[in-house]
Specification:
- Its EC number is 2.1.1.79.
- InterPro entries: CFA/CMAS, CMAS, SAM-dependent_MTases_sf.
- It is an enzyme of class 2 (transferase).
- It comes from Actinomadura namibiensis.
- The protein is of the alpha/beta class.
- It folds into 2 domains: about 110 residues, Nonspecific Lipid-transfer Protein, Chain A; about 280 residues, Rossmann fold (3-Layer(aba) Sandwich).
- Helices cover about 45% and strands about 15% of the residues.
- It has 17 helices and 11 strands.
- The strands form 2 sheets. Strands 7-6-5-8-9-11-10 form a 7-stranded mixed sheet, with helices on both faces. A 4-stranded mixed sheet has the order 2-1-3-4.
- Helix 12 packs across helix 14, helix 15 packs antiparallel against helix 17 and helix 16 packs across helix 17.
């Protein structure tokens, strides 16, 4: 069996894909818009020895397979056709592979994962989130290259879901609107103090300082993020109001904040740590202080959580854990917050990711030169896959607003939401 034929059999003869291989073999639909080129017989080893789609991802990241065509279309197409291949058919293909000496030799060798895979030991959830391990996990993903992130994220340097106010709003307009929406939900006013945990490159911190005259402190576990943010703060003349520190949020000593924002951090906290996390943020607030939690969620808590040995956890967010929106709200509530508002921005994140995908493609050659082809490939498949995830409701994005009441139960909240859309 030729290499191209192996992949055609795994995908199904009706798949609208052309398969070619270094040995000159060809299969599938000749001239199809989507094309897979197999560069090494060892790609088959990844498919055989890795669970599910992880093998295909490993073969792609390592450069053993090239993909031509829009990655989103590739993933959505392969999702459909691979789901139709029975276990019996996979076993039949494997038996035929083993009859070929070259392919049998490739399959018999279990390859090490590509170097882009996080080298973390698999440990129980209650052991995952020490300060040292969290710092290592954040560094794996965020300390890649600030230049690379500038190309992918655009001028806003906001690596969280944007909020599109209009159908045709640009990504930059949507990121500004997201920060402004958070500011309005928090009721920011001049002279207030804001704590932004997991602040990234300081987008919310700088927005609060510039647009609302708020004294804002942001903290991040990424050294590269903190350095970039502090320079940006200085360059924009905001040093008297804004600050970003390279530190664990658990080490913030100040208290008495008027507002707390957590935009894209809760995913890294871990289920076991959510009670202490929300209690910590609650204790940082004055009475009437509001906390806005912006986090990726899963649709419910009925299905098992995202696999720790899947592609996302191995390559992108080591130790990441998602919970359902109801569970997040319950933990906030139990920590003392009165919940005043919640909304799902799922479709907005799909649009945000499409913008990032376009940015990466526009800067593909520069990105490869900056971080290497393997890392660029990780980002290409990860972001396109996440577009599918949000569109098909595998994952969601919730903003949940809570307030700290005074001793008499007063919230000092408006009778109706005053932050618009």
């Amino acid at each position: 069996m030729t290499l191209a034929r192996v992949f055609e059999r795994l995908a199904g003869a009706g798949a609208p894909v052309e398969f070619t291989a270094y040995d000159g073999s060809r299969a599938g639909v000749n001239g199809a818009d989507l094309r897979f080129h197999v560069r090494s017989p060892h790609a088959v080893s990844y498919l055989v020895h890795s669970p599910g789609a992880l093998g295909l991802a490993r073969a792609y990241v390592s450069g053993m397979i090239d993909v031509s065509g829009d990655m989103y279309t590739v993933l959505s197409t392969m999702q459909q056709v691979l789901g139709e291949v029975s276990a019996r058919e996979k076993a039949r293909v494997l038996s035929e592979v083993l009859r070929d000496p070259l392919l049998r030799g490739a399959v018999s060798r279990r390859l090490d994962p590509p170097p882009q895979e996080a080298p973390f030991s698999r440990v129980p959830s209650w052991l995952r989130h020490s300060k040292r391990r969290d710092a290592k996990a954040i560094s794996h993903h965020y300390d890649v290259s600030n230049t690379f992130y500038e190309w992918v994220l655009g001028p806003s340097m906001a690596y969280t879901c944007a909020c599109f106010p209009e159908e045709h709003s640009t990504l930059e307009e949507a990121q500004f609107h997201k920060h402004d929406l958070v500011a309005k939900k928090l009721g920011l006013e001049p002279g207030m103090r804001l704590l932004d945990v997991g602040c990234g490159w300081g987008g919310m911190v700088m927005h609060a300082a510039k647009e609302y005259g708020v004294k804002a402190l942001g903290v991040t576990l990424s050294k590269q993020q903190a350095e970039w943010a502090q320079k940006a703060i200085a360059d924009r003349g905001l040093s008297d109001l804004a600050e970003v520190r390279h530190m664990d949020y658990r080490d913030v000593a100040e208290t008495g904040f008027d507002a707390v924002s957590s935009i894209g951090l809760t995913e890294h906290i871990g289920k076991a740590n959510l009670p202490s996390y929300f209690s910590f943020l609650y204790d940082k607030l004055k009475p009437y202080g509001r906390m806005l939690n912006h986090t990726i969620t899963r649709p419910d808590n009925l299905a098992p959580p995202i696999k720790q040995d899947g592609f996302i956890n191995r390559y992108v967010f080591p130790d990441g854990e998602l919970e359902g929106p109801g569970y997040i709200q319950s933990q906030m509530n139990d920590a003392g917050f009165e919940i005043r508002h919640q909304e799902n921005l799922r479709e907005h994140y799909a649009r945000t990711l499409r913008g990032w995908c376009d940015n990466l493609e526009d800067h593909w050659d520069e990105a490869v030169a900056e971080v290497g082809e393997g890392t660029a490939r990780v980002w290409r498949v990860y972001m396109a896959g996440c577009v599918l995830g949000f569109e098909q409701n595998w994952i969601q994005l919730h903003q949940t607003l809570g307030v700290k009441l005074d001793d008499k139960g007063d919230a000092r909240m408006p009778l109706r939401p005053d932050w618009g859309v």
